[in-house]
Design brief:
By secondary structure, the chain is an all-alpha fold. Helix content is 83%, strand content 0%. 20% of the residues are buried.
Length: 417
């Protein structure tokens, strides 16, 4: 009886083995199909086209940013005149006229002397280079630098840099044109402030108007404080370098002072860029003068970073030193000098947006101050909706900015005290 059972079970086992092998083979030859939805493809094309257009329109974006920075710098002066009974268009004309007259006077008083000192510095260059080479030759570590400085051939440098000079001139002309474009754009933005602000508030839901107005008020503070702070610190750096070099008897002090004022736009870095020309100009006058110039510039750098910058910028640029250095490096790497100039206000704006939009960071929990601020925001939004019911966007925007300005003033008083 066992033989028939074996005959019937053998085909069953064979069938199971065949099915198992077919299943394994089907797993090995499984085809994976990836289907991309048409909307995904369309969105990807839109993103790529947007990035391409943004890169092409980068100069236009920079002109817009420059205009906004000019508006943020000059708006407090216009508002001050408007509060004293001067019409807004007249106040704008007065501010821009004073700015133009100041620029012309600065140009007339400094540029001719600057050109003369540059010519004198060029004439003194061979002697300064030889003295610097002798100073390098005193040490075995820098002896090779002395030979390199003595063997500089200007003919080859001029021939190789002809194309670079043409490119540089083109960039300068384009920068001047973009600068004038930013100035005129800022003028029109200040004249049409109410309509532009009303158009912006018209496309934003009314429940977000208070938050938007707070962002605009703080952005105006950041931009205006940054520009005014840069103007003050750069002017003080230029004045300090000029007085120091003049007192030490170093010639061409105006040229180095102007360079120092321009280089001071870069915090923590500009002073070290200025030290090189200042120390090199003081080398022919002995070790004592070089030491005095170097030590006093280092002392001024400490004074500027620890005392002057917090006083001048106030609460407009509350950035840690690490954030400042990282922002400068990132901005310079991405967009060169322009990126370095815009790095600090962009970093301050990002931190302000995280704060005002109440973005919850992963490692942060809501504090009592945040809860109180959120309640004040909700109360302000309800009050704003009550006061602006049925109003056009232009009039409602003015009320929102006024409410946000009053609240910012009230918040700044405890911080100032």
């Amino acid at each position: 009886m066992r033989a028939p059972e074996n005959k019937t079970s053998a085909p069953v086992a064979l069938d199971r083995r065949i099915e198992h092998e077919e299943e394994v083979q089907s797993r090995r030859t499984r085809v994976i199909r990836i289907e991309i939805a048409p909307w995904t493809i369309f969105s990807l094309v839109l993103v790529i086209a947007g990035l391409w257009i943004s890169m092409r329109l980068l100069p236009v974006f920079l002109v817009l940013v420059g205009a906004l920075m000019i508006v943020g710098s000059l708006a407090p002066a216009v508002d001050w005149l408007e509060q004293r009974g001067v019409r807004r268009d007249v106040g704008i004309a007065i501010v821009f006229t004073m700015l133009f007259v100041s620029a012309v006077l600065l140009f007339v008083l400094t540029v001719p002397e600057l050109v003369n000192q540059v010519r004198s510095l060029i004439g003194m260059e061979p002697a300064l280079r030889e003295r610097l080479a002798e100073w390098f030759a005193r040490s075995p570590l820098t002896a090779s630098l002395a030979d390199t400085m003595r063997n500089v051939h200007y003919d080859s440098l001029i021939k190789s840099s002809a194309t670079s000079v043409l490119t540089f001139v083109t960039i300068v002309v384009e920068s001047i044109a973009y600068g004038f474009g930013a100035i005129f754009l800022a003028l029109y933005m200040m004249l049409d402030r109410d309509r532009l602000r009303g158009a912006l508030f018209a496309v934003v839901p009314r429940t977000h108007h208070i938050r938007l107005s707070r962002i605009l008020v703080h952005l105006n503070t950041i931009v205006g404080g940054y520009i005014r702070g840069q103007a003050i610190t750069c002017a003080m750096m230029a004045a300090f370098v000029f007085i120091l070099l003049t007192a030490c008897g170093v010639p061409n002090a105006l040229v180095i002072a102007v360079f120092g004022g321009l280089a001071d736009i870069l915090p923590y870095i500009g002073i070290f860029l200025t030290m090189g020309p200042a120390v090199a100009a003081a080398l022919p006058y002995g070790t004592v003068i070089v030491t005095v110039v170097l030590v006093l510039m280092l002392i001024y750098e400490e004074f500027e970073s620890r005392v002057l910058v917090p006083i001048v910028y106030g609460h407009a640029m509350r950035l840690p030193s690490s954030v400042v250095l990282f922002s400068l490096i990132a901005g310079a790497t991405l967009f060169g000098i322009i990126g370095a100039l815009l790095a600090l206000p962009v970093a301050a704006t990002i931190l302000m947006l995280i704060d005002k939009l109440r973005v919850e960071l992963p490692g942060e929990t809501e504090q009592a101050v945040d809860t109180e601020r959120r309640k004040k925001d909700e109360h302000s939004e309800l009050e704003y909706e009550r006061r602006t019911g049925g109003m056009p966007a232009e009039e409602a925007a003015a009320i929102a900015v006024e409410m946000s300005g009053d609240r910012k003033t009230a918040e700044d008083k405890p911080a100032a005290s």
